[in-house]
Amino acid sequence: MKPHRMKLTHHLVVNYDLYRKMDVFEPHWASPEEIKAFHSPEYIDFLQRVTPTNQKEYAQELQKYCPIFDGVFDFCRIYSGGTLDAAHRLNHGLCDIAINWAGGLHHAKKSEGSGFCYVNDIVLGILELLRYHPRVLYIDIDVHHGDGVEEAFYVTDRVMTVSFHKYGDFFPGTGDIKDLGAKNGKYYAVNFPLLSGMTDESYKNIFKPVIAKVMETFQPSAVVLQCGADSLTGDRLGCFNVTTKGHGECVDFVKSYGLPLLVLGGGGYTIRNVARAWAYETAVLLGEEVSNNIPYNDYFEYYAPSFKLHLDPDPELENANSKDYMEDIKIRIFENLRALDGAPSVQMAQAPPSILTREEDEDAVDPDTRAPEHDNRRQPEAEFYTNENDQDQCEPSNTEKDSNQMDADRTSATSMEVD
Q: Which positions bind a divalent metal cation (predicted)?
């Protein structure tokens, strides 16, 4: 999941003028202490110390962790900070919807990385939301099972995890319908195992009724939505046939409930399609219509030959999910949800200290006299490439040069929040 996905997404969001309709903030870098709210100290120590040059010293750890690159821990701090900041702002009513497309790394476990995911920012974000919300719903539309998030909350009834994913001979190999949760969390893990070739129509016909039933049963007070774009048609590692419109329809359906919503990225390995999906879903979350014609930008040629925003399904990809199969899974999920006695009651005491290590107590600041320092950390105008403040406008555009440098650019992740 190369960070230059963020650059392509950023340029589409900017050139569709969507950034003008939202507040854009620079994320703080999550501290090791904040990340240890979920991850083990030993694992975080490993991430801080390992580099491509010394990784041979950590051969045993590397067998279970992910490939190492320069700046891996800084990268983790940036995208995790974005998710924590987004959850913090939702908690304090500073926005209704918060977006961090750089987040959504759902495979990382407490003491190990997995599936190109090093730090599980989703778990960190949910932990932050639980400080103020009695029940948090997690929805995952990545083509891969959201195993790391499910595992983290497998024995609690305060978080319900719902994952729609390819199941079978496919990474990570988990997410059977029989995986329900345990102890207090029994029936609070919902898995919809799918086969190859899912189409927009098939996806819609299972997603909407399942989410509607989950909302009715669990009654969450906040929602986290992971929008992995590897469930799109044409993804290098995916096997579904869902278009950008179908993917976006799921986002719009979740948005329609009007609950505090944290929207995150995730997988996606055909980067031009990742940018298409996340730019379109930014528009969906804003309630804005955007043209199907890709606006000219520094990466315009990436979208050849169609230069269109929306994808067409692959007519040669067969949908292996029969109506009977999907109906059977849906019925079994409904039966499991009926085993619950409605939404669990949670005794909410005074909110504990935030896992975010702030330089000041923002709640103690008088909002009528000055804004907290962190809430003022907006992206500078020079980052938006659309006016005279553009610091790069005098330099020639060289997309090939930019592309070669993008892998080393670990600082492009931004947290975008929608009022």
A: 142, 144, 230
Whether the link from the prior residue into 27 is cis, omega within 30° of 0, is no
Q: Is residue 181 within 8 Å of 224, Cβ to Cβ?
A: no
Q: Which residue has the tokens 């070669």?
A: 404
The strand order across the sheet containing 97-100 reads 23-25, 415-418, 97-100, 261-264, 222-226, 136-140, 159-166, 189-194
Q: Would the annotation count 144 as a binding residue?
A: yes
Rounded-to-integer distance, Cα 164 and Cα 5, Å: 23
* CB-based burial label for 44 (10 Å; 0-12, 13-18, 19+): buried
Q: How far is CA 132 from the centre of its chain?
A: 21
145 is catalytic: no
Q: By 3-state DSSP, what share of the chain in percent is helix, strand and coil, each rounded to 5?
A: 40, 10, 50
What local confidence, expressed as pLDDT, does residue 71 receive?
87
pLDDT band at 400 (very low <50, low <70, confident <90, very high): very low
pTM of the model: 0.85
Strands 136-140 and 189-194: unpaired
230 labeled part of a ligand binding site: yes
**Which domains, ranges and CATH numbers included, belong to the chain?**
4-22+82-344+352-363 (3.40.800.20)
Among residues 4, 10, 39, 107, which one is catalytic? 107
* Amino acid present at 283: A
